[in-house]
Amino acid sequence: MGAEAGAREARQTYLPAYFKPGVEKTEPVFVDNLKLAFRDPEHPDDQKLDRNMRATARSLINQFGGEVAFSQQIERWMGELAAECYQFLIDWLRLKKHPIVANMRAYEPEKGPEQVWNHVVFYYQPQYQEYLPFLDNDGPEDEKNMVVTCELRVNADLPPPLDTGLPAEIKGGHVVPNNTSRSYVNNWRLQFDDAGKIITNKERNEWYYVLNTSNEQLFTPTKLRVMDKPSKTRASESNPHDLGNKFVDTEIVRAGLLTLRKRYR
């Protein structure tokens, strides 16, 4: 795996991961999501957990100076993450034609922030609309401030026969997703510079929502990474889980059992 997207400061504790973009960033919401993340399924009504999560939420919120300041900071981080996420898609999917591995979140809205699902992002389709400040009384009109609705398509990662392993087809030189792919619809407000590049740390950036196909609010992805060449050796001594494949060597390629695409050779 290679580069990852995410607000530098937010990654220290990654507080935005406990909130859905389109939902209020209040203490009760924070407490509920912390309880979902740390609950024991066998003891869903654990009173000790409830007390601990309330204390944790209150302590973290107080570090920011109260609920209003905390909510504003989470919104700023989410705006930064939105800008980084979209720039990452542009740089790797559109310009370099390279798939992305993403830590997506649960597709069912009732599930908590602790769930992270690995998917390959192979397609995105954005639509642009100039932000109209007179509707929200938010600063002067700016043609470089855009609202971007962006559909991401990922592999469904379901057991066969529900998932064929082919989430799209190539038709006329274009990628056409099919019904074995999964759709995440994002809505961002982003500031661009004169060269058309996204300004990452602009306070006007916002992440409005992530929706599933039933228009239900979801949590944002936690990481975007670039797929790298396969390896059978440990890439880093500092990460004991980064082992590569220690059981399979390149003999399976030489034997014709596995074909590597040109980019990975």
Describe the protein.
Helices cover 23% and strands 23% of the residues. The strands form two sheets. It has a six-stranded antiparallel beta sheet, with helices on one face. Strands 4-5 form a two-stranded antiparallel ribbon. The model is unreliable at 1-13 (pLDDT under 50). It has two domains: 10-226, no CATH class; 231-265, no CATH class. The longest helix is centred in the first third of the chain and has 29 residues, at 67-95. With 265 residues, it is an alpha+beta fold. It has helices at residues 27-38, 47-63, 67-95, 251-254, and strands at residues 100-105, 116-130, 145-155, 168-171, 174-177, 181-191, 206-211, 224-226.
Mean pLDDT: 83
> What is the overall shape?
globular
Termini Cα gap = 16 Å
Number of helices: 4
Order of helices and strands: HHHEEEEEEEEH
Number of strands: 8
Q: Strand order within the widest sheet?
A: 7-6-3-2-1-8
Secondary-structure-based class equals alpha+beta
How big is the Rg?
21 Å
The largest pleated sheet is described as:
6 strands, antiparallel
Portion of residues in beta strands equals 15-25%
| Domains (count) | 2
Low-confidence stretches: 1-13
Estimate the helix proportion, in percent: 10-25%
Give the key terms.
single chain; about 260 residues; alpha+beta; 2 domains; six-stranded antiparallel beta sheet; two-stranded antiparallel ribbon
